[in-house]
Amino acid sequence: MNFLKWPGVKVSKVGLFSFVSFFLFLALAHLQSAKADTTLDLVKKRGELSCGVSQGLQGFSAPDDKGRWHGIDVDFCRAVAVAVLGDAEAVKIVPLSAKVRFTALQSGEIDLLARNTTWTMHRDTALGIQFVGVNYYDGQGFIVRKDIGVTNARELDGASICVNAGTTTELNVADFFRSNGMDYEISSYEKSEEAVAAYDAGRCDAYTTDQSGLYAQRQRLIDPDAHMVLPDVISKEPLSPVVRQGDDVWADVVRWVHYAMLNAEELGVNAQNVDKLQESINPSIRRLLGVEGAYGESLGLDNKWAARIIRKVGNYGESFDRNLGAGSQLKIERGLNALWSNGGLQFAPPIR
Amino acid sequence: MRSILKWSRENLFATRMNAVMSVLSIWLVYVAIEGVFSWALINASFIGTDKASCAANPHGACWPFVTAKLNQFVYGNYPMGEQWRVNIVFALGAFGLGLLMTKRVSFKKEVAVLMLTVYPVLTFILLSGGFLGLSYVETNQWGGLLVTLVIAVTGIVVSLPLGILLALGRRSELPIIRIMSIGFIEFWRGVPLITVLFMASVMLPLFLPEGMNFDALLRCLIGVSMFASAYMAEVIRGGLQAIPKGQYEAAKSLGLSYWKSMRLIILPQALVVSIPGIVNTFIGLFKDTTLVMIVGIFDLLGIISFHFTDPNWTSPQVPITGFVFAGLVFWVFCFAMSHYSKSVERRFSVTGENK
């Protein structure tokens, strides 16, 4: 400790100790105050939501000619932004590869991850992250040529299947065919483009991946209308937005943005009629739109939060339709993603 | 006409074997070119605003994809109203390089100094903004060719001087400097660039306190520069070793100091010897910039493949067209670099053998 013996300067050990501990205290206090800020506070302070999405996935997050992002995941980012900040454009969209997505969330680079991420037990429990609610029920399926006359996956006995090598899809196919006692032949390809091209060239009877991906890949085929996606799903891929673990306030906000969009669809509130329905006598609608009660305030927002989401982004059905469903190029059926009241799985707790 | 006939008789059809080979090669060239030609021009679609315009020509290129997205490919999401700033940077860069390449310009040295000192600062001010009345443009809005060039040029500009210092350090007689240089070089040469980028974007944020982030593009720039410097150092060391010992001794006997002898005697010769290697490294670096795609930055190739997911453009020919376009752009830049290197070699050649 040379600096203690600096000529002409005498530093007592007590003095040094108090000096150092003062800075330690400052640092600790700083850490404390940083910890006390919830993500909600941080986002409000910053005036911008940082939202992680995939690096281009049709229907979930994809660009248009002007580079503007579209997709159901991007819509969800905008919905959270408009609920929290009142501006659907106050979003910084951060495209992330599959490998960096959780790190980006853990390090605070993003506030919310809406990146077609499958909710699994391992991820939920081991990675320090929290899944808030399924915004798309996906599952592995098959696409076949219409003219081979197969209408469901059980009829694929003896078929040759094109898959991407080294993915869980390959395992799922093996499990499915084995457990049903069917014969099959697998051709695996390093990249999905190669697998699709092989299928299109007639080298396999079917191509398999997640159903949303099948609909997207179908458009890459030379004659998309000659192919159909079989209705069967052989694996569960519930896709959910993700937040950091340990910030319940923020998790609540994100979760209820999703629920508000579902409730809006269920109650028939959409972007067109939301302003008119402010005068609705239906108490559920009045609560959703913040005419009655203080549900937004209990979330740490204001009471018009849900009304804003519906006005700017729309309800869940509208977002689905625009990005994935009949109003999009993908034309995916609602299927499992229909509301529970229409035979699907999308169910939101009531606002009351 | 006559001379052509004469030439071909002498060179292409001199013997029977020769004639067979000539016909065969001409046929091969024709087959290859015909395929490319009909794909790129005859069967291709040129006008349109979405994939429907390409459906009519299922076996030809879908050029409307490139024209519709060209702005994206060049600037990424850089705000439309601010793109003049990027244009100025491009224009200044092209102008400076043009001056350096023109033979009759007598003030090349001054231009080079300006390009290496003022130009980078100006580029930073213009592109990033945030002061002087320029609005701030976050780097996550940069993309396409802009990002490719920013990364490549930064890598090139940083790696050359740093590489020279490291090469000299590695041959230094001072043990600490030598060991540090060797350590640096061997460390960066020992890890793949993709690992460096991955560490920078995945691991680094975990070590920083929560909420503190430094720019993703900056992280990549630092990683790429370090990486390129290590390679550059080895290329230049090769040049230094090629200089005969007599040159070092002559410099010493003239009483020149270490720096003076390096600056006046050794480096001018060593650098000229290593020009092919240096340019090789530059070209490699330029192509390596595509790796930043994996850390969420859209360079030229990244933004092109990103736009394949636009639902309005999903048709079988779109990805092929996009990749061909990317390949063409990369080829133009790399070819220009290697061509320029040849002329520099000729100009600086001490022995005159390349003249």
From TrEMBL, chain A:
SUPFAM superfamilies: Periplasmic binding protein-like II. GO terms for biological process: amino acid transport. InterPro entries: Bact_solute-bind_prot3 (IPR051455), Solute-binding_3/MltF_N (IPR001638). Residues 48-270 form the Solute-binding protein family 3/N-terminal domain. SMART domains: PBPb. Keywords: Signal, Transport. This is General L-amino acid-binding periplasmic protein AapJ. Gene3D superfamilies: Periplasmic binding protein-like II. Belongs to the bacterial solute-binding protein 3 family.
Automatic annotation (TrEMBL), chain B:
It is found in: Cell inner membrane; Cell membrane. One of its GO terms (biological process) is amino acid transport. It holds the Pfam family BPD_transp_1. Keywords: Cell membrane, Membrane, Transmembrane, Transmembrane helix, Transport. Signal peptide: none annotated. Its main location: membrane. GO terms for cellular component: ATP-binding cassette (ABC) transporter complex. Residues 145-341 form the ABC transmembrane type-1 domain. The chain crosses the membrane at residues 20-42, 84-101, 113-136, 142-166, 187-208, 264-283, 290-308, 320-340. PANTHER family: INNER MEMBRANE AMINO-ACID ABC TRANSPORTER PERMEASE PROTEIN YHDY, MEMBRANE COMPONENT OF AMINO ACID ABC TRANSPORTER. Belongs to the binding-protein-dependent transport system permease family. HisMQ subfamily. This is ABC transmembrane type-1 domain-containing protein. It comes from alpha proteobacterium IMCC14465. The lineage of its organism: Bacteria, Pseudomonadati, Pseudomonadota, Alphaproteobacteria, PS1 clade.
